[in-house]
Amino acid sequence: MSAATQSTTTPPTAPGTAPDGAEQPVEALLDAQHPEGGEPAPDAEDAKSHRTVPRSAAFRRFIAQGWGPRPAEDTGLAPSAPFAARRREVLSSLFPGEVLVVPAGPLVRRSNDCDYRYRPHSAFAHLTGLGTDREADAVLVLHPRGDEGHEDVLYLRPQAGRDSEEFFANARYGELWVGPRPSLAAQAAVTGLECRDVALLADELSASVADAATTGLRVVADADPAVTAVVAPLRTGAAEQVRAADDELVTALSELRLVKDEWEVGQLREAVAATVRGFEEVVRALPRAVGHPRGERVVEAAFDGTARVEGNGVGYETISAAGDHACTLHWIRNDGPVRSGDLLLLDAGVEADSLYTADVTRTLPVDGRFTDDQRRVYQAVLDAADAAFAVARPGVRFREVHEAAMRVIADRLSAWGVLPVDAATSLEPEGQYHRRWMAHGTSHHLGLDVHDCAQARREMYLDAELRPGMVFTIEPGLYVKAEDELAPAELRGIGVRIEDDVLVTEDGVENLSAALPRTADEVEAWMASLRG
Ligand code: GLY
Ligand code: MN
Ligand code: MN
Description:
single chain, binds glycine, 3-stranded antiparallel sheet, 2 domains, 17 strands, 532 residues
């Protein structure tokens, strides 16, 4: 439904009392935090707008009454809550005496008066265990409490009363438009956190900073510019010091996610299982895709439909790349045909409702059978993946996984006669000729973000030893563009990537996406079985 026939106007001093007990002026603070969400005064707006908002006193009285109690709220402690509490304890120990501010982030405008579907900042999701779309503008604060670490408080928009203007007139937040927000009491019960009205945020941050025992304040600055602005007057120190302090917090939050706990691994397993079902749907849809002018979209729709039904959606834009499009590493335009005889590279992942995502690639022969040339490239990539799997275990450095895959890629390209130097020379840092045919890395951490832990320091990521509980991808590829004059003619237009999600165990790795076939023969048999 469009908001065009209803005003989204919410005057800063809209009357009404929130059921959580807070006086309504919470809107004033929120609109000050989010000027783009605030609207001109009703009269000025109405005078130049086509919108019709009922403003009569009679209507306001009428809309506010005659409502029974809301349905009972979910008040069970979320299974994620004890894990989130442990993560906050670790964070607390890293920054004793400091106020830590982790916003969920605001709604983001897609265009005009339409927002993107809401997704909280991953650091916020990690520290609260909340993965739904209900926390726009929320802020988690760890207030220092001397020797006792921190007091963790979740500041949220409280429920707006049915007697508020927001209830009927605010298309971004209003209950009649987007559904009711949970009460603070329900949020507290679900998260196990102390929950307070976000209207209290500025004052309580001030008080916390003013406490004699407080030694500093840090904020995840890019999560919500409005919250960053609220904390700005409370900062001391030069701009570079402030930025460095915030960057350290972001780095710590990223590194906190390097090793997944048991609950996170469970979520990743669910995301991968749903992804496997999405791939199966794609194989069933392939006959429909062939011949359709935008067959890649048929593939995308089959996967994304499954993702939306089974989880929160896709964890990143689906890459549905047939034929030469497979050589475009992040081909998400997906507007090409799927031709008989070609390969289809499908790189796709379901994001669970908890926001943990899979990231899996399979390269499928559209007709169900690889040609000899396709098989040759496929086997080289599979061998590279197997080499990476063979070295991956605790104690091995993250970059060694990539190096193992690269040795195979360079050897195979050398055997095909396409490298200007021998494989060993190409593998030297000052060579790297083989990377022309595989420009991306072999692995990245996986979790709440598809490229998880991206702000971790090099020594904690690329140069770090693998530890049990880490989850990352193994995804070598070879991409021979159709116009590549250095490649054998028969291989041009062939792009292959094989991507699995792996969990580091005590003595090796577990392939979380092993339910999808990997060898060329297995892929053919699997496709045949699904096509009946
Ligand atoms: N889907 C993006 C990647 O594999 O990293
Ligand atoms: Mn990946
Ligand atoms: Mn991928």
